[in-house]
Amino acid sequence: LDEYYETTFQRKFAIDESTGRSPSFDKLLPLLQVFVAVQREFSASELARVIHREDDQVLASLKPLGGLLNLPQAEVNPSTRLRMNHKSVSDWLVSPSRAE
To answer: For the chain, how long is the longest CA-to-CA vector?
Structure first.
């Protein structure tokens, strides 16, 4: 699974060669940190409050995470319940070997 997640993140979040960082990933980092820390289902509105953003900002940010989050097929709204598709996503995000 490590290779799958690595490939998925590289495809979705291009690295700026001059900085070695991904601006699009950096924007989503607070959302991912909450998912990793909480490890339970919560609403998009709750997530927005935790990271001090508006509901519409959080909703717009969820699109690139579609394959990693369990999002409904219907339109996502502030009351939509969110969770990682699988615990292995959180495990991969915090893996010490990935940070090397």
So the answer is: 39
